[in-house]
Structure formats: structure tokens, C-alpha cells
Specification:
The complex is a heterodimer of chains A (about 280) and B (about 375). Chain A has about 280 residues and is α/β, with parallel strands linked by helices. Helix content of chain A is about 50%, strand content about 15%. A 9-stranded parallel beta sheet of chain A has the order 5-4-3-2-1-9-8-7-6. In chain A, α5 packs across α6, α6 crosses α7 and α10 runs parallel beside α12. Classes of the chains: A alpha/beta (about 280), B alpha/beta (about 375). The interface between A and B is medium-sized, with 35 and 28 residues.
Chain lengths: ~280, ~375
């Protein structure tokens, strides 16, 4: 079983849901990211999503856009991120959240001239695994185009996670799910990251549809802004992703005196919500 | 994917539907003013010892070729039961075209435009609002076309049920590149029939400016099977050859993925999309349409570039020689004729005059008053 698979398995065994926080690498800089990752890890994050900044993040709302913008001003890159994080020994596996182009270009750059084109991707997968990455989610990579990435990543025991949207038809669902490993990421509403989501009955229908086709854990994300949102999410899914709210929390407190404590406190409230979430009914 | 698949299915249905075709053709005729003339440029032809024709997309209603695609997609959107259109715009011509067809068909219209572009195309912003569209300034990223596309896509994915994304060029996720090319092909279909009627033979060369690629592909596409017809696409050479100083994707770019398609992009070594520059907002974009990328690699289209200075100069020369005031974008195509005039001797040429220059009057005046330097772009191609 993969590291991400094991993380969900542990949650299940302990009768709780998975807490999956998201941070942007390099916002405001890699040392701060490393410190924040350690705080998330110690607070009990089960899987940690690490966003790789991109100049044109079409799936992201203003909070993550601004975060990526700040990180890019510091010239962060996928290569620098993997190199920097190599020394961290986190308990939780990282899920790399990236757009395709930065991945494609690094894979190209790392390709050996006399070896097949895949050699660059293999090196990338190897270095990612060494840096504590347990899986990759490429937000603009469709299942139709994913074959070579899946082959390479899975050969290094890295999970490939894909997004399922509320607009995904039941006809298309099996195709997406057949590419997924580790878990299935269900977007809680139509739209981009950040704006608050009110969970409705239809989310349960989507989760049921997913469960009809595969037995992987399902985590929901996009618009999970408060501990209450997380509680409601936990009532229906196996885990909840919290992105913009955590990015914003870090941005607000980083640089201040004792920011680590303040950040840890905020995270604690989210973790608490995943512990109590399973027993509460959501207000759909 | 679902909205894209729904769009593709609806589009294919319309392709096979004669009433759709008839409705579109009637509006292209009665509202847009098609067919546009293929104007013989007598004085320019004499100067270059060639036979030069301009395909007059500047005479379309709204002043550019953009409306050919906007009308097609708006009719399609109405067929699909959508009530709202979102669109991105760079120079504003596509935004104006979108606002225009929405006013015509009674659809709600929201246009996203980068604040940098809004500043240099104030007239078009006013026109869009006069036509009843909402113009939303985009302040993220580089605040130009690519950021407007990002914001439009974000709106679309958030409002997909009632909204159609009226994409303005041969870019983006499938089926847009094909659909936009099909709608713009009316340009080339007409030009082909017109040149055969006037000259009893096919042209030697077609020349067009290339931003996203819709006007050029619209002209070129119906001639693709005519092997003896050469094709030249002119990109924005901007003010220099460094990354960020131009928008010549085939000079300084490499293959990558942006906005749902795989094509030549201007990017840095980490795969971040690079800033671009051109005096003409409509050519100022980091990616070129994927079909252009294919045709470039196949050697079917030769790509070159014209600098800001060369485009400005071409604009003035065309105005003084033929009484045609072209858009700065289209002036890049004209600049190609003027770069090495002797090379066109004896040839039969069609240049796509993709738009008229009213929107560029203030830029032209500023540059002329500044005494803009006319540096060559250093093109050896």
C-alpha cells in the first residue's frame, strides 16, 4: 500500500477522518514553508498538499493566485522546492499539487540526451519520493493524456490523484477513477478554489456515485473555509482538504512575533473538526 | 471536461444542421456585411512590382474579423439554451464583437480585460459598455490577455450551466481551436473564390499577422490543400529579442501546456509563462494556436516577425499609399511586404487586413509625436 493509502487506512482504523491541509511552496519563502509543513505535521495532518506556484493558475481563486504570485516573486520553482524539502522528515506524505507545464518542463530539462524522454520524469519522480512526496495531482492533466505520467509515477510508488467535479458525468466517472490511486479528490462545488462552499445533498450523491465505481477513499475540497465546513465535510467524505483558509492564515501571521504558535493554534481548530466530524450530520 | 464535451457535441450537431448554417450566413451577409471585398492595391503593387490584394476584414461590422467567430458561437450558445456569455479580450476587438452579437441576440455579456489593455484601448472599453456589456478589469498576474483568459475560465467553470465561454481565438481546450478556425474560414473561402475570379489563378503567397491565430488560420485554412500557395504568419517582434520584449512564439518559445492546449509558448526554464510585449494588444500573447504549431512543424507556414517600429511604419505607408488605415495588428502583416520589397517581385499576394485602425489612433498619434524609432526586427527568416 502507498504512503497516502496508509494514511487513510490509519484514519479509518482510528475512527476519524483525514485532515489534508494545503500550502503553496515558497510563500513567502521556502524556509517558512518548511517551518509551516512541520507545524502541520506535528498538529496531525494526515496528508499535506504542497502547491507548486504557477504563473497562470486557472483553477485557483484570488487567495491562492496571490500566494503563487508572492512565491514566484521569490523565484521558487518545482526543482528548488524538491531540493529544499529533502532534509525534512515529515510523518505525513506530501501530495504535490501542480499544473502540467512546470512538471513538463522540468521533466524535459532533466531528460538525459541518450536516454528515452521518460528519463527526466523518472528522475523527477525519484527526487520527489526522496523529498517525502507520496503522490502527485496535476490539475490540468486529463485522464486521456495521463498514461505516461501514471506509468512513471506509479513505478516509483507515487500515487496519481485526479479531480472529480460536480459536473463530471457518471459516464465519464469510471475513466477518471481508473486513473486514480491513493484517494479521489472530489471538488465540493463548481468553480475555483477559495470561495465558501455550502455542502448540499448532491455532494452525497456524487460520493455515492464514486463509491459505486471504486473503493478508494474520497476527500472533498474547494471552499472548505472554516472548522464547521470541515465538520460537515467529514460527515460525508473520508477526508477534507483545506486550502485557501490555511494559505490565508499563514500569510496573515507569518513574519509576526511567535507566528508559529498562532499558526499552530489555527491548524489545531481544523484538526479538532476532523476528529469530531464523523458523528455530526451536515446541514445540507 | 463535461462542459467541453457538451459544447463539442452541440457544435457537431450544428455543423450538420442546414438551418443553423443558413441563419449564420444570413447574419454574416445582412448584419456583418459579408462577403468582404478582396481589394487590389494598385499603387503598392506598382511599387513592389507585384500584384497585391487586401482581404478587407476591416470592413466587417465592428471593424475586424472577430465578429465572424463571435456570431457563430453566440448562435451556438443560444441553441444550447445559454443565457449568458463570458469572453476575454486583449485589444478589445473580440470583446466588442462579443458585446455586439450579445446585443443582437439578447444575451447577457461579461467581458474580462486586463487593466494594462484597458488603458491602451479605452475606445473599445467604452464601446463594449455602450453595447450593454459588463467589462470587468483583471488585476491579477501580468494584467493582460492571458490573465483575462484565466479570469474568464474561472467565471465559466463557476457558472457553467447558464454560461457559454465565447473564446476569441484558435486557442484553448478542444473544441475551441477547431470551432473558431471553422467560423473564421469564411475569410479564406471567400478569398479563394475571389482571387480565382479576378486573376484566374491561385495566389503565390498569403500573409497574415498571428496573435492567437484566428485571422491567419481563417485565411489560410481553405488553401491548405493548395500546395503551391505559400503561407507567411507574422508575429509581434515587439521592441527587442529578449524574453518579455516581444510575442514571437516561434522565435523565442518552446512547446508547453497553457489554457488546455499543447503549443509553442513563451516561457522561462521553470515553465512559468513569460511576459510578452507588442505595441498591438491583439498580438500580445504568450501562446500561439495549436494548429499553427502543427503547421509550423510541418513546414506549411513560414513564421516571421515585425517589430513595433516596423508595424508603425507599415501603418503609415499603407495609409499614404492606399488610403487604408489598418489596425496595428494587421500592420504587422503589411510590414512583411515592406521588409524586403524585392523578394515579392512578380508574385500574386493576398494580405489579410484583419482590422481597421480607429482603435489605434491615440497610440499612433503618441508614437508619431514621440518620433518612434524604426529599428528593424533582425529577422533573417
Amino acid at each position: 500500500m502507498s504512503r497516502i493509502g496508509e494514511a487513510f487506512e490509519r484514519c479509518r482504523a482510528e475512527g476519524r477522518k483525514a485532515f489534508i491541509p494545503f500550502l503553496a511552496a515558497g510563500d513567502p519563502d521556502l524556509p517558512a514553508t518548511a517551518a509551516a509543513l512541520q507545524i502541520l505535521d506535528r498538529a496531525g495532518a494526515d496528508v499535506i498538499e504542497l502547491g507548486i506556484p504557477f504563473s497562470d493558475p486557472i483553477a485557483d481563486g484570488p487567495i491562492i493566485q496571490a500566494s503563487y504570485q508572492r512565491a514566484l516573486e521569490g523565484s521558487v520553482s518545482l526543482e528548488k522546492t524538491l531540493a529544499y524539502l529533502g532534509h525534512l522528515r515529515l510523518r505525513a506524505p506530501l501530495l504535490l499539487f501542480t499544473y502540467l507545464n512546470p512538471l513538463l518542463q522540468l521533466g524535459r530539462r532533466w531528460s538525459e540526451p541518450d536516454l528515452p524522454a521518460e528519463s527526466g520524469l523518472h528522475r523527477l519522480a525519484r527526487e520527489a519520493a526522496q523529498a517525502g512526496v507520496g503522490g502527485v495531482l496535476v490539475s490540468d492533466l486529463t485522464p486521456e493524456e495521463a498514461a505516461r505520467y501514471r506509468d512513471v509515477f506509479q513505478s516509483h510508488a507515487l500515487d496519481t490523484v485526479f479531480l472529480v467535479a460536480p459536473t463530471t458525468t457518471e459516464i465519464r466517472l469510471p475513466k477518471i477513477l481508473s486513473c486514480c490511486s491513493g484517494f479521489v479528490y472530489l471538488i465540493a462545488r463548481t468553480g475555483v478554489t477559495g470561495r465558501q462552499t455550502v455542502l448540499t445533498r448532491s455532494i452525497e450523491n456524487h460520493i455515492d456515485a464514486i463509491r459505486r465505481h471504486c473503493s478508494l477513499p474520497v476527500a472533498i475540497g474547494f471552499g472548505m473555509r472554516t472548522p464547521d465546513d470541515v465538520r460537515r465535510g467529514c460527515a460525508v467524505a473520508d477526508g477534507v482538504v483545506v486550502g485557501s483558509a490555511i494559505v490565508e492564515a499563514l500569510h496573515r501571521c507569518v513574519g509576526r512575533q511567535n507566528w508559529e504558535l498562532e499558526f499552530a493554534r489555527t491548524i489545531g481548530e481544523f484538526v479538532e473538526a476532523t476528529r469530531n466530524g464523523g458523528s455530526r450530520r451536515h446541514s445540507g | 471536461m463535461a462542459p467541453l464535451q457538451e459544447l463539442e457535441a452541440a457544435y457537431i450537431r450544428c455543423c450538420g444542421d442546414t438551418t443553423f448554417r443558413e441563419e449564420l450566413d444570413a447574419l454574416l451577409r445582412e448584419y456583418v456585411g459579408r462577403p468582404t471585398p478582396l481589394t487590389f492595391a494598385a499603387r503598392l503593387s506598382r511599387e513592389l512590382a507585384a500584384r497585391i490584394y487586401f482581404k478587407r476584414e476591416d470592413l466587417c461590422h465592428t471593424g475586424a474579423h472577430k465578429i465572424n467567430n463571435a456570431l457563430g458561437q453566440a448562435l451556438l450558445a443560444r441553441r444550447m439554451g445559454k443565457r449568458r456569455i463570458v469572453a476575454e479580450t486583449g485589444a478589445g476587438q473580440h470583446g466588442v464583437a462579443a458585446a455586439t452579437v450579445c446585443a443582437l441576440l439578447g444575451l447577457e455579456c461579461c467581458v474580462y480585460m486586463g487593466v494594462e489593455d484597458m488603458a491602451r484601448q479605452e475606445l473599445n472599453v467604452f464601446r463594449m459598455r455602450l453595447l450593454g456589456a459588463d467589462v470587468v478589469p483583471v488585476r491579477s498576474g501580468s494584467r493582460t490577455l492571458k490573465d483575462a483568459i484565466n479570469e474568464t475560465m474561472r467565471d465559466w467553470v463557476s457558472n457553467v450551466e447558464q454560461t457559454h465561454y465565447l473564446l476569441g481565438s484558435v486557442l484553448g481546450p478542444h473544441p475551441y481551436p477547431r470551432m473558431v478556425r471553422d467560423f473564421q474560414s469564411v475569410i479564406g473561402r471567400e478569398a479563394r473564390a475571389q482571387i480565382l475570379e479576378k486573376e484566374a489563378r491561385l495566389p503565390d503567397v498569403l500573409i497574415a499577422c498571428v496573435g492567437g491565430g484566428s485571422n491567419s488560420l481563417g485565411l489560410f485554412y481553405p488553401f491548405l490543400g493548395d500546395d503551391a500557395v505559400a503561407m507567411v504568419g507574422v508575429e509581434a517582434g515587439g521592441r527587442g529579442s529578449g524574453l518579455g520584449e516581444h510575442a514571437a512564439r516561434f522565435r523565442g518559445g518552446s512547446p508547453g501546456v497553457l489554457h488546455g492546449c499543447y503549443t509553442y509558448l513563451l516561457q522561462d526554464t521553470d515553465g512559468q509563462i513569460a511576459p510578452t510585449h507588442s505595441i498591438s494588444a491583439g498580438l500580445d500573447y504568450a501562446a500561439v494556436g495549436p494548429e499553427h504549431a502543427l503547421l509550423h512543424d510541418a513546414g506549411r507556414i513560414r513564421f516571421t516577425a515585425a517589430s513595433d517600429g516596423e508595424a508603425l511604419r507599415a501603418c503609415r505607408i499603407l495609409a499614404e499609399t492606399e488610403g487604408l488605415i489598418s489596425a496595428l495588428e494587421s500592420a504587422h502583416a503589411v510590414a512583411e511586404l515592406l521588409k524586403d520589397p524585392a523578394s515579392w517581385r512578380g508574385r500574386l499576394i493576398i494580405v489579410n487586413l484583419s482590422g481597421r485602425g480607429d482603435k489605434d489612433m491615440s497610440t499612433l498619434r503618441e508614437e508619431i509625436e514621440k518620433g518612434a524609432p524604426e529599428r528593424p526586427s533582425g529577422d533573417e527568416g
